[in-house]
Amino acid sequence: MAGRYADRISINIELPTQQGLAKLAPEKNLARTQDAMGHIRGKIDERHAEKRKPDAPKPPPFATVQSTQMLVGADDSTDAVILRRADVLYGDYRLRRVYYSGFSPIPEPSSLLPIKPPPLVREHRLYQADWLLRFYGFKVDEIAMDAAPNLDLQLDPKLAWALRNRAIFPADVNKASREILLRVPGLGVRNVERILGARRYTRLRLADLLRLRVPMKKVLPFIIAADHTPARLGLDDDALRARFLPPPRQAELNFDAPPPPVASDILSVSSGELYPCGPSSSSRP
Amino acid sequence: MRTVVIQPTLESWRERARELLALRVPPDEVLWSDDAQEPGLFATTDDTSPRGAVPKVSPAFLDMAHSVAAHNAARRWGLLYRVLWRLTHDGERHLLAVATDPDVRQLQQWCKAISRDIHKMHAFVRFRLVGRDEATGREQFVAWFEPEHRIVRLAAGFFDKRFAGMDWSILTPHECAHWDGSALHFTPGVLRSAAPDDDALDDLWRTYYRSIFNPARLKVRAMQSEMPKKYWKNLPEAPLTADLIAESGGRVEKMLRTQTRQAKPAPKNAYFDSLRDMNAPKPPPPDGPTQTP
């Protein structure tokens, strides 16, 4: 019914497991919620198919997209459990978006709920992981493993994956496939497309990447460019992880935009030196 | 070197660029100026009328030019012409695919600035109720907005779809847009003093803004990047943010210190009962599989 009047429909799944629902929202049922999503998916697909038939009369309007919300930190579900549920919703039910919402304390706290909210950065890491699943060709098991079911709060999940899989790097920006470039920390989907487009006509150098506002400090250990080969030592170095960790004290994190290149990035590019600054100034949120 | 004077619009630039291109005038021989007051005032093309066909360019370039034309940068016309020249006369037909080219990159960044400005205009226009049309009975609203670039025409379509049911005017220093329920029209820019200052709806809006602010999810830098300072002076809710931010820590502390209460018993109502019924394990059917609801 709502589908006739709205262009997007959202049924909130709220929690990734039936156990969590049984504790916090006993009237809600995971299977029934997913059934409803399946029903909506059917209607959306049906409408889409009818629209593509030439000469067919215009079908009655129906929503084109569905989304949902999952609460993070209200029950004890790990990030792996949350991401696996999201993956099912994207795969089997074709949801456009899963929104992750960190549990936030309320004025009259209930004894059923945790006292402390999860750190805001956890929600941010889940969104990053979600993007990796949808746009970067990652599988849940590559991001959140059984051995470490929660995402690293200090490093973004793509960088964390790259540090665990150093053997596939460095990737040559002038030759590597799209799939590999998408796995380079610091290269986003759009910049990968730009690189693929531009390298048909020109050999890419670091100055080109800088012009695309690629975060140089992050990518340099992982790429080869016409004028750059990372020191083998750099990738094998045990201290590589430490170089990416945030400085010890941080007032707040800006989760929105990748930082624009700063003077030290340009310096490092022109000098060819990888890490001109000490760890205190070399990593920013 | 020749100086070409145009109006600050894409159409005006396009007309002259076509002529120059047909005459094979290279970009470094043209100075562009966009302070022509009247259309065609300086457009004297009689004896230099173009010979030969004008080469075609891709729709992608025109889309880009459409956006770039709205940007403030004075050198946009010259750069558009240089890229046009490179696409058509320098044999770089693929140029737009080379995002690392400094010229292309610059155009893309201007496009991005324009779409960001449009996005902010969609988010930050605040209408004030000024009256009701006696004849039609429709409410009339006026908003004042200061976009960074000349985006009123690019951004206006959103408002006439979204606020089709009211009469409105959006006033800006560059250009004003007006909607009367049937058509959009545009008039030249006006001064800030032409727009109303405050109305009763502003208080309602401020109360709403204060109430939906969640102190437990405070991210000052994200807030500031979403709502850059340059827009504050025209946003009725902007003066609230300093206090809301300052109080946040204390409000959250208080919540965390509050004694937890027992979970409230579930309300008794038919809807919840029906949900519980559906959740209850069903007795096995006498014969054959059951249908799931």
Task: Estimate what percentage of residues of chain A fall within beta strands.
Answer: 5-15%
CATH class of the largest domain in chain A: Alpha Beta
On the 0 to 100 scale, the average pLDDT of chain A is 84
Whole-number total of structural domains of chain A: 2
Strand content of the residues of chain B, in percent? 5-15%
Distance, first to last CA of chain A: 45 Å
Structural class, from helix and strand content of chain A? mainly alpha
Q: Name the strands of the widest sheet of chain B in spatial order.
A: 3-4-5-6-7
Total domain count of chain B: 3
Low-confidence stretches of chain B: 40-49, 288-293
Quick rundown:
The complex is a heterodimer of chains A (285) and B (293). Chain A has 285 residues and is mainly alpha-helical.
Helix-strand blueprint:
The complex is a heterodimer of chains A (285) and B (293).
Chain A: H1 2-5, E1 8-10, H2 18-24, H3 30-52, E2 65-72, H4 79-93, E3 97-102, H5 120-135, H6 140-143, H7 157-164, E4 171-172, H8 178-181, H9 189-198, H10 206-211, H11 216-219, E5 223-224, H12 232-236, H13 240-244, H14 263-271, H15 279-282
Parallel strand pairs in A: 1-2, 2-3, 4-5
Chain B: E1 2-5, H1 10-22, E2 30-33, H2 59-68, H3 76-88, H4 102-124, E3 128-132, E4 139-144, H5 152-162, E5 167-171, E6 175-179, E7 184-188, H6 200-212, H7 220-226, H8 238-257, H9 270-279
Parallel strand pairs in B: 1-2, 4-5
Antiparallel strand pairs in B: 3-4, 5-6, 6-7
Could you name the key traits of this structure?
heterodimer; A: 285 residues; mainly alpha; Transcription Regulator spoIIAA; 3-stranded parallel β-sheet; two-stranded parallel sheet; flat; disordered C terminus; B: 293 residues; alpha/beta; 5-stranded mixed β-sheet; two-stranded parallel ribbon; 12% strand; elongated
